[in-house]
Amino acid sequence: MPAAAPTAPVVAVGPDFASVAGRACSGAASAGWCWQQPLPQGNAIADTTFVDDSHGWAVGDAGSVLATADGGLTWSGQSSGTPLALAKVRFVDARIGWVAGSYGEVLRTTDGGTTWQRSSFGRNDAVQDFGAADANAAWLTTFSNEGYVTHDGGVSWRKVPPAPQGTFKLAFAGVDDVWSLASFFTAQPMLAHSLDGAALEVAEPARTSLKQGAEIRRHAHEIPLDTSAARNVHKTWAALDKLATARVRLEKSQSRNNAVNADRAEGSYREPAPAPTAAQSVVAMVDQRIADHVKALSRAYAAVDTARAAAVGLDDVALKGALTVGDSLEDASKAMVEVK
C-alpha cells in the first residue's frame, strides 16, 4: 500500500491587526473597517492644532482624529470612539486636549489622544467655537447662538446667558472672565474689553495700538455713522479683532523661541545680534497693520464728530481744518478700504 501523502501543517489564521496598526479604523484597537488608501485616512479634515513644533492633531468627518509627533511629516490615526463629524480640536499641552463637533459631541483626552472620554454638553447642536484652559475648564458656542462653560472636565456644563441682541460669540479673558460679543454695531465696550485683554499679552508697539483701539471702541457708540461709513467701519473693526488674536498667538510663539535662545551668550563675550528672522518680520508686519487699522478708525470717528459739531455751528474752524488735511468722512472711509 502506498504511503499516505504528507499533510500540510495546520496554521491558525486570525485577524491581521499588525497590518492596520496606526491607521484610521471604525472600531477600537484597529478593529472594524480600516483605511487602506489614501493613508492614514481619507476623510475630510476640518481643524488642526499644534502645541509645539512637533506635536499636533487634526480632526474631521466620521470621527477622524489624527496625530503627529514629528511636525506633520507622518500622521497616525487615533480612535475617537464616535462616528460623528468633528469640527474643533484644542490641546492645552501634549497630553490634555478637547474635540467638539456635530450633534453636541464633545470629547476629552488626558493622555495625548490614546483614549478619549465623551463630555457632551447635553444639546443636539453643532459646536461653532471652542476653547479650553486645562483638563477641567472649557467653553463653547453653538450655531443656535448658545454658550456653555464647564469647570469639571465636561461632567456638567453651565449655560451662559446670550447678549440682548441674540447673536454673539464668547471671548474668554480668563477661565472665569467670560464676555459675550454682540454684532459690531452694538455693545461697543465688549470688543473694547477684548482688545484690552490682547494688549496685556503683547509687546510694544502693538500694545499701545490695541489700547488706543479699545479706547476708541468704548466711545464709538456716541458717534453716529451713515450707512456707507458704518459698513467700512464694521469691516475695519472685524479685521482689527482678527489681527489682535493673531498677534497674541505670535507673541506666545515668540516667547517660546526666546526662552530657547536665552542662554546663547555666556560670560563677557556676546555674539552680534542676529538678523531679524522670518517670524520677527511677520510680527513687525502685523504690528504695522494693527496701527494702520487703529489710525483709520480714529480718522473716521474724528471726522464725523468734527462734522457733527460744525453742523450745529460749534466748530467751523475745526471742520475746515479737517477738510484741509483730507480727514473728511469720505476720505477716512477710503483709507479704511485701503487697509482692511
Structure description:
The chain is α+β, with helices and mostly antiparallel strands. The chain folds into two domains: 37-182, YVTN repeat-like/Quinoprotein amine dehydrogenase (Methylamine Dehydrogenase, Chain H, 7 Propeller), CATH 2.130.10; 184-258 and 278-340, no CATH class. Helices cover 34% and strands 19% of the residues. The strands form four sheets. Strands 1-2-3-4 form a four-stranded antiparallel sheet, with no helix packed on it. Strands 5-6-7-8 form a four-stranded antiparallel sheet, with no helix packed on it. Helix 2 (206-220) runs parallel beside helix 4, helix 3 packs across helix 6 (329-339) and helix 4 (278-311) packs antiparallel against helix 6. It is globular. Residues 10-14, 183-187, 265-269 and 312-340 have low confidence and may be disordered.
Low-confidence stretches: 10-14, 183-187, 265-269, 312-340
- The CATH first-level class of the largest domain comes to Mainly Beta
Q: Write the element-wise H/E pattern from the N-terminal end onward.
A: EEEEEEEEEEEEEEHHHHHH
Biggest beta-sheet profile: 4 strands, antiparallel
